[in-house]
Amino acid sequence: MKKILFITFYWPPSGKASMHWPLKMIKYLPQYGWQPSVLTVKEDTFSNEDNSFNKDLPQNLHVVRTHFWDPFILYKKLLGKAPTDKLVASEALTKTNKSLVQRITVWIRMNLFIPDARIGWYLPGVAAARKMLRKEKFDAILTNGPPHTAHLLGKKLSREFSIPLVSVFIDPWVDISYYKNQKRNYLTLKIDNHLEKSVVRSASKLVFVTNGLIRYFTAKYPSISGKENLLYWGYNEEDFENSNCSSPESNKEQVILHAGNIFDYQNPKKFWRAIKNQIKNGKKLKLKFVGTVGPKIKEEIKENGLELFTEYLGFLPYNEVVMEMCKADYLLVCATEPRHLPGKLFEYMRTGNTIIAFGDNNDEVKKILQKTNSGMLFSYEDSAEEIFEKKISLNTNLEEVKKFDRKVIAEQLAAILNDL
User: How far apart are CA 330 and CA 314, in angstroms?
Assistant: First the structure.
């Protein structure tokens, strides 16, 4: 059996959604001839813990954890938080908070941490990986980012030990969505672009989770043509086997659920007004949010008089998130830009419940929703009120959805690895 080293910052017990894809690939790859090992960190202080993923960890999996310098510990002190307090992702880079401390910390994050705030993992990660690679022969290295620091680790080790590198891009690099409306200086952008270019040129194979990302990177770096591969984010069929999604709860009111973080730049303002109008006209609706919610969005919900019809559940273990998805009548998802295909979309589709998607010029989301007949895509300038009338006509094609099962995707990844 061939051996592959996965370099991933997020790993159980982290509850970060970015961890789902590598975890399931590692679970299924041995069935297709590849034995993974993992390099990760000892503690991710930013994410909430979710021990429900421990069941997916192979018993014989070799995992090496390293320390790293974590700037968020200092950030907590500046905010007056205790070391054990969790940070809110949707508030960390918000522009709603205009305090001097917030403005300074955001500037530092945007301009001094290159490529990202996990650069403090680079040196400890390289040192730990060297020990692994000197003890054991590996046939491939796979990096998963963001954080894109993981890709820098992989590039360094790939060159030093002459091992093929596969870089998996979940999101863009130099212009990732949470940099939107933030200021990065000329030198920072120049360095960051150089690092991005060095990784995509060094990798033997590049994996992107959307066609939009493929188009963007191949247009920016024509020399990588032929190395690019599409593997969607997908979902795990096993997570839905005992979820009762086929028979959702009969709610007194119809529930609109958003699962995961929603940021201020993902704010469908007219949709909140549409919900207000629907309730005013006698429709029983309830908004539910699992995860963090941007302060501006909370403000808009309050301004529309929806506080009494809104429930903020905060962080939940993943198995409970799946249950909430299954119980909902409508599932809300907000794509940030045309290259973005939210990972939760695949889990949403698997529930069979109606999806309300927002995204400007996002043909990829639109095509997948149409192909699976699972929902509708609206512009951020739309109210989406028509979805409440069209709900009955939507009947999700689950056979089409199951093509996105991560076990299927792991087999596709194995084929890419076999071609190294």
Answer: 19
What's the token pair of residue 97? Answer: 């908070």
Give how far the C-alpha of residue 65 lies from the chain's centroid of Cα atoms, to the nearest Å. Answer: 22
CA 351, CA 325: separation in Å to the nearest integer? 7
pTM recorded for the entire structure: 0.91
Strands ordered across the beta sheet of 228-230? 62-66, 34-41, 2-8, 140-145, 165-169, 205-208, 228-230
For residue 171, what is the DSSP state? S
Is the backbone peptide bond immediately before 295 cis, with ω within 30 degrees of 0?
A: no
pLDDT digits (tens, 9 = 90+) for 21-55: 999 999 999 999 999 999 999 987 777 888 888 88
pLDDT in tens, 252-303: 899 999 999 999 999 999 999 999 999 999 999 999 999 999 999 999 999 9
Coil, strand or helix at 66: strand
The kind and range of the H/E element at 386 are none
